[in-house]
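Quick review question:
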């Protein structure tokens, strides 16, 4: 009984430690590692190659904010201090894209992810211990991001495959070809033209994606951290149909923290402000981008006392965090430059363009007008926070879901189930101690009697 309890106790302690370490590994990153959001697929209808598909997805606000801060630190020469605070020498995000045709559970044409995608410590992602690539030309195991400071990203996948190892595979290196991952009735391949075709009126191609964060610390191998898989997107026969947005789909921008920077453009100062990106807007922007349209932000300002607002030049791509705009458009014949002590009033709106559905543009309502020292903008419900993930006040992000159970509020930083497990271990330890003490008391009396008999 005692041996059984000891084994049980050791096992429970190992489980508890493993769970805590798994939780700590994600919490140790300087941003929230969530799955690619609102993944949307659009077949390019023969552009680039007969099968090329554009996959569009979104980054969460804490990722874009972190890499914007990293970019700024690199520009102002404080990158060493920034990376020291982040706890590593370098860090970057890439994407993995898995695909399937018709049936994601099919043994041949279903999802193609294998454990090799998780990486070899010496040879990298998708490689075995001998450095052989164990993924096909259509398996994206280390796709680059356009710019990690921007919310909406895209990547072209399932592109044309020439009639070489990329199509046929290489048995010697155990590298699969795309042909090995398709059933014969799902495609046609013209060897002369080296052209692969899939009839999208008869077949459906599915996609899912996940982020890979690579952390590099000098003297150690690269460490990989993976998000959960995204929603499933598709093209072809059973694909979701994308629709047109209306003005009702565009909330007014939420902006705060207008300030004057120490930068200049055309002899005039540059201002900065903070933009929050609501989840619904990020979703709409991703789907619109995938479908050939676009949503951008317009920034308008005036010097206090002026009658008219003027559109500024600067950041226009949607991204959570700090945006910058140059004030030289506010200069005129009477006011050749804008003094740095000028009081600036600024407002923004979203502009939605989609040549497939309409001419011209659709605009959101204006944001509230903000000026220096005014920070009275109330966040809309559903707005994702934009706090710096490196700030000591909120290192892991407020309001994020527990990475283990996905619903608890992580009391004191740990999943509620870890706390329950710890309580259970403590109870078992107390029970074991009581049992051992009682046995010692009983055993001690009998042992003394035996010794007396021997004498």
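Suggested answer, residue by residue:
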């Amino acid at each position: 009984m005692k041996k059984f309890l000891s084994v049980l106790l050791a096992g429970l302690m190992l489980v508890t430690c493993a769970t805590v370490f798994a939780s700590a590994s994600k919490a140790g990153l300087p941003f929230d590692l969530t799955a690619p959001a609102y993944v949307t697929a659009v077949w390019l209808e023969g552009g680039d190659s007969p099968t090329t598909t554009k996959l569009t997805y979104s980054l969460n606000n804490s990722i874009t904010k972190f890499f914007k801060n990293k970019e700024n630190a690199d520009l102002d020469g404080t990158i060493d201090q920034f990376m020291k605070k982040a706890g590593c020498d370098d860090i970057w995000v890439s994407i993995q894209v898995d695909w399937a045709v018709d049936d994601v559970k099919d043994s041949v044409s279903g999802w193609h992810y294998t454990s090799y995608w998780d990486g070899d410590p010496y040879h990298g992602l998708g490689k075995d211990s001998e450095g052989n690539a164990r993924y096909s030309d259509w398996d994206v195991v280390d796709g680059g991001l356009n710019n990690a400071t921007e919310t909406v990203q895209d990547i072209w996948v399932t592109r044309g495959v020439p009639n070489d190892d990329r199509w046929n595979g290489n048995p010697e290196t155990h590298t699969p070809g795309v042909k090995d991952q398709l059933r014969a009735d799902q495609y046609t391949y013209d060897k002369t033209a080296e052209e692969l075709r899939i009839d999208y009126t008869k077949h459906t191609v599915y996609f899912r994606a996940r982020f890979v964060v690579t952390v590099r610390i000098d003297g150690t191998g690269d460490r990989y951290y993976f998000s959960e898989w995204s929603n499933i997107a598709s093209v072809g026969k059973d694909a979701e149909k994308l629709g047109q947005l209306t003005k009702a789909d565009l909330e007014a921008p939420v902006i705060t923290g207008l300030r004057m920077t120490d930068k200049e453009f055309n002899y005039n100062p540059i201002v900065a402000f903070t933009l929050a990106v609501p989840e619904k807007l990020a979703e709409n922007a991703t789907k619109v981008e995938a479908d050939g349209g676009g949503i951008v932000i317009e920034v308008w300002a005036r010097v206090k006392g002026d009658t008219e607002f003027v559109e500024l030049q600067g950041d226009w791509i949607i991204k959570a965090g700090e945006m910058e705009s140059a004030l030289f458009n506010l200069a005129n014949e009477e006011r050749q430059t804008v003094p740095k002590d000028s009081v600036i009033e600024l407002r923004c709106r979203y502009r939605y363009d989609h040549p497939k559905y309409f001419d011209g543009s659709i605009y959101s309502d204006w944001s509230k007008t903000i000026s220096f020292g005014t920070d009275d903008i109330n966040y809309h419900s559903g707005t994702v926070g934009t706090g710096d993930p490196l700030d000591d006040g909120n290192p892991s992000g407020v309001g994020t879901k527990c990475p283990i159970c996905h619903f608890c509020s992580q009391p004191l930083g740990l999943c509620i189930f870890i706390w329950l497990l710890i309580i259970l271990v403590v109870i078992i330890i107390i029970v074991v101690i009581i049992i051992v003490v009682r046995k010692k008391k009983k055993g001690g009396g009998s042992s003394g009697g035996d010794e007396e008999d021997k004498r």
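Why it works: The longest helix spans residues 416-454. The chain has a mean pLDDT of 83.
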